[in-house]
Write a sequence for this structure.
């Protein structure tokens, strides 16, 4: 069974990993120098959404179990399929960007499909080991990753330019509060926390994990965005497909230490492997729960093949980015929407059970 701290670090990783891809670029395009303010705004909205949903949520059932209790097998299957689509869409978008960046940065002379196959096999192995093993690996690795990221940001201090922060509100408050609202999708992966409630030792603590994960990943994202905005002036900052990697390449400590991006690539790759493993497990868990299958592991191979097949389709990276842009703007609607509906159903079914007990 998962512990509270393990589920929290899993949630932090699956949220924050998007900041290491093209997500910062989309935020800068909208809010310019005020991208860090937009992330603060998005994090506050996500915390409020999740807090309200968990306040309404009654009992210790996850989303699928709640749907089953409220509407039987048909509603359970429908909700499971909807969750599966949300997870699959998020997963494909992140993995396509990840495989392209690995090909462009780490393995330039290697066939991109071979890179994807190796990545898929590693992620499938992680999913096969189970969510408890993944939780322990996350708990052991994330402090190391956080230390490297902190060192990376400190080494960038000589490259920060305060004049890049002006104007403080970037393209205007309307851009931050209006069109910037869609970036709440950064936190849409929090649906996995609700999905894994039944894997907790203490299900009552699971509700607290989501809030902590949103706050911590939000703080980390704000720091990354602030560093990016201080390092590169707008609109030049819009031209980078992988902003964090570009910042890592700037770190030089004389001739003795001039390849910090190698450390960054190592940490980044492991975080992506862990992300992919958790997502594969979550999709298999969704299918097994929705269709009441006894075992989850036999699903890993077919789910891996289905999930990574779109990643291997030959498309230009700019097209991939446009797909990411759509996901970054609207995935929050489906993720928080289904959690809210299931929370209302759990409240209703919990109230009905109490009334029946009262009648007895």
């Amino acid at each position: 069974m998962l512990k509270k701290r393990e589920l929290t670090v899993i949630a932090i990783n699956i949220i924050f990993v998007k900041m290491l891809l093209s997500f910062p670029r989309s935020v800068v395009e909208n809010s310019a120098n005020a991208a860090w303010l937009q992330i603060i705004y998005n994090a506050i909205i996500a915390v409020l959404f999740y807090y309200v949903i968990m306040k309404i949520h009654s009992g210790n059932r996850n989303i699928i179990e709640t749907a089953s209790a409220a509407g039987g097998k048909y509603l359970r299957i429908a909700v499971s399929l909807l969750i599966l689509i949300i997870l699959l869409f998020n997963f494909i978008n992140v993995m396509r960007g990840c495989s392209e960046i690995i090909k462009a940065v780490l393995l330039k002379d290697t066939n991109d499909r071979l890179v994807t196959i190796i990545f898929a096999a590693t992620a499938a192995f992680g999913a096969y080991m189970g969510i408890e093993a993944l939780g322990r690996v996350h708990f052991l690795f994330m402090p190391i990753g956080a230390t490297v990221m902190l060192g990376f940001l400190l080494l960038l201090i000589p490259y920060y330019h305060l004049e890049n922060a002006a104007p403080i509100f970037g393209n205007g408050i309307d851009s931050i509060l209006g069109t910037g609202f869609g970036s709440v999708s950064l936190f849409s992966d929090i649906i996995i926390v609700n999905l894994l409630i039944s894997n907790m030792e203490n299900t009552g603590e699971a509700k607290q994990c989501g809030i902590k994960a949103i706050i911590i990943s939000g703080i980390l994202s704000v720091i990354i965005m602030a560093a990016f905005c201080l390092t590169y002036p707008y609109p030049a900052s819009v031209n980078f497909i992988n902003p964090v990697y570009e910042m890592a390449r700037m770190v030089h400590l004389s001739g003795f230490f001039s390849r910090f991006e190698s450390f960054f690539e190592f940490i980044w790759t492991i975080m992506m492997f862990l992300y992919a493993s958790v997502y594969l497990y979550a999709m298999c868990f969704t299918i097994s729960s929705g269709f009441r299958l006894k075992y989850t592991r036999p699903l890993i191979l077919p789910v891996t093949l289905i999930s990574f097949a779109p990643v291997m389709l030959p498309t230009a990276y700019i097209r991939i980015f446009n797909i990411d842009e759509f996901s970054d703007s609207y995935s929050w609607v489906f993720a928080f929407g289904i959690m809210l509906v299931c929370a209302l159903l759990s409240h209703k079914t919990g109230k009905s059970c109490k009334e029946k007990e009262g009648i007895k």
